[in-house]
Fold:
Amino acid sequence: MDTGILTVIIGLALVGFLVAGLPVSFALGGLAVLGTLYVWGWKGLYMIANTAYAEGTSYLLLAVPLFLLMANILRYSGLADDLYEMVHKWMGPIPGGLAAGTVVICAVFAAMAGISSVATISMGLIALPSMLKRGYDKSMAVGCISAGGALGILIPPSIIMIIYGAMAEASIGQLFIGGILPGILLALIFCCYVLIRCTLNPSLGPPTQERYSLGQKMRSVKAVILPGLLVVLVLGVIYSGAATPTEAAGIGALGALICSLLHRRLSFQNFKSALLSTLGLNAMVIWIVTGAVAFTHVLAYAGVSKMIQDMILGLGLSKWVIFFCMQIMYFILGMFLDPAGIIMLTTPVFIPLIKQLGFDPVWFGVIFTINMEMAYITPPFGFNLFIMKAVVPPSINMTDIYRSIVPFVLLQALCLLICTFFPQIVLYLPYAMMAK
Amino acid sequence: MENIKKGFWRKSCLFVDSLNFWTANIFCYISVVLMLLVSYEVICRYLLNSPSDWSGEINQYLLCVMSMLGGGYALLIDQHVRVDIIYRFFSPKRRSIAELATWWLVILFALTLLWFGGENAMDALIKGKKSMSIMEMPLFPSLIMVPIGALLILLQALARMVRCILTLTTGIDEVAREKSAA
Amino acid sequence: EAGNFKLRIQSVYPEGSHGPVLLKEFAKKAEEYTKGKVKVELFWPGQVVGLTEAYDAVSKGTIEGTYSCLIYYGGIVPEGKTEWLPFNWPTTSDSVDIYLKAGYLDLMRKANVRHNVHYLFPMYSATMGAMTKFPVKTMEDFKGKKMRATGLDGSLVKLMGSAAVSLPATEIYTTLQRGTVDGVIYPFYTIDTYKLHEVVSHIVLPGFHTPSISGVYLNLDFWKSLPPDLQAAVEKAGLETMLASAKGSDQWDKEALEFAKQKGIKVVTLPGSDVEYLKKACAPIWDSVAETTPLCKEIVEMYRKYLKGKGAL
Ligand code: NA
Ligand code: NA
Structure:
């Protein structure tokens, strides 16, 4: 069969299975089996089993369960409550202060956890009721939590960056460090937006009435000590060279566990559910990587990936046109798919292509991650939106949630453009780290 | 007669559920072991300047155990990433039809891993294959995780299909019913 | 159509690097010498099978061949480790002699047949040795340092007083640069191709593997399915590639050392007494490999006989 026809059939089959609701990992893996039988013969099926073993024992992916564990333990650490109390005392009196402070807490949590759900759940449970009670506009309150929570994948550590790094063979350490400045930038953009809008129209985020003495305020600052130590521990060991990202994940998890024990918040029941959640999410990641890698092998064997690359390169478009087409495609995929699934679906074609076009894989990885920030909050499939739906009071419906994210998606797109045209924002720290 | 049969199928599904549930409850502690081993390794290297030979490799095998054996559990608690744009709006009956039409692919994938992964593991056992590191650890214990994990996924996927058939025959949303029971 | 054969080779080395350039030459020659009856298709790292699985995939016929290196599969083919015994041959031409005249290639073929693999030919992959961030004058300087080394090299750096660290190749640059490790045992040309000149300051001679070795391994059933004339033609292309790689390997070493000097990297040679000590201290490593299988023993004895004849042992 002609490679072109085969490509179309595989593509349609994949879309069909995905839309019918089959998990991405098994759609990719199952189609890999069918494709192998067709183009490769039964001997090719050893490849599928070998792939599962290779991904299951991958040194790079070892960071995944460890960062998941760290994140899951942090949920029960009580750190979020203390941080919010501090924000409330210091920033409450400013118009929009609670919302801006919530974004800051999300950024701090992002620097400890590799996924977006920890900050989103914590702030959804703690900050949202508090803001609504004090008359904050529901769009403002819901939007800043969904968008702030998504910072979790851009500010290191980041599971998405680990998966991207493992697939693109880019240094995960450099990707992490490259995400720091764009993450801070995005958090700042969110804060400025919230503060400016609320200053212009204080009914969106009225100042709180409670007043606290300086002593009370100062005492609340101790809330930053433990998170600060954890951030320094994880990023510090990576940046200083004491450990690889995988090892930093292990130390971070241990640190989070110790913090939670110090706070006496971690019951055995909570600990057990953290472990179970880690097991399930980790299995999800490893199986989706397995399915995608097996699928990639079949595409390479059949010559499909090469054909698509040649076709795209043969169009004679400038590399920036291709770049923006990719970003638009990522954005559209992001509406329907989880970022891990997107990396897996696009890797076979996109990764060799960006290398051939001469883009820096670290820079591209960070830009990709900023794009995926949008995926977390764009409907219909936006992970943070579902979390919000689960925690908001009945007075807020799904349409309210969808409406709340519009300005934040635009701000994320702005950040993406800034980091595209000023690549130094991404690459300054990785290069500085290298020059050390 | 009809009821007894349904009882049998339902019980089988619940058995598979609890199999994966207990597997998860036992093996979820591996992440704690991983955390301790990785931290220990960093301390050994950074503070004591004496990295261990075995830690990195053991960690990779532990990852293999928890990833392979956790696949069925992730299926049980519906944690595998899905595109549910249309799927979400389906009625239970329609969803059952869609699943019956597609989940055979999961079965095919799991059977492939069960068969060929099993052959790889047996091959390693018979020939005494060892890892490429200095430690030369036997490969069989980690290789066997692939077919075991595939079996757990296979059973969970079959349970899912049985539930879809039950949903179609009884008209009750069996998937949701038993999920809420668990 | 009938009489035509497809030979798919998965390379575990990236397309741009030195070895694959020669592999492409081999592919061209094999097609030419077989008058197009054997069609060679090359795949680059990770495309159809991963590095660790490549040998197994060839053995089972998932792919027809791989361009890799047997040290990765030492747990499966213990004889592969003999190609990586530290200081096993003094120069490239000695190694060519050992393979082609002293009967090493035949012994290695015998070892691989057991796994349904035909060892087509070895390829030389340049000298591999220590590159460090710390100044080196004698072996003493390695004491208490952390060296990234895999396989038997791990045992060797321990003999030198260093700790052996195994890390994935993708992290070599960053871990060196951040001091997670103080040095690596790696091909000298990576000073250029991996930009290691930015993160190391010293190249230490002599190399542990002068030169290191890789090779092309084929599925035995595929090999047997070829008619004798095609076998001979592929064999001829293989031999020519091996000899070309011997020349190339020496050239890459020369270029690497020149490049290093240009970049201000110090190229130091360990004192003769240290080298003598190390070679002697390696004897237990050699012995332990020799004990693995009778064939390993035969190979190590063959080495020792050859080196004695040369007066190098
Ligand atoms: Na993060
Ligand atoms: Na989305």
The mean pLDDT of chain C is 91. The radius of gyration of chain C is 19 Å. The first strand of chain C starts at residue 5 and ends at 11. The pocket of sodium ion (ligand 2) is lined by residues A 334-335, 375, 378, 381-382 (CB under 6 Å).
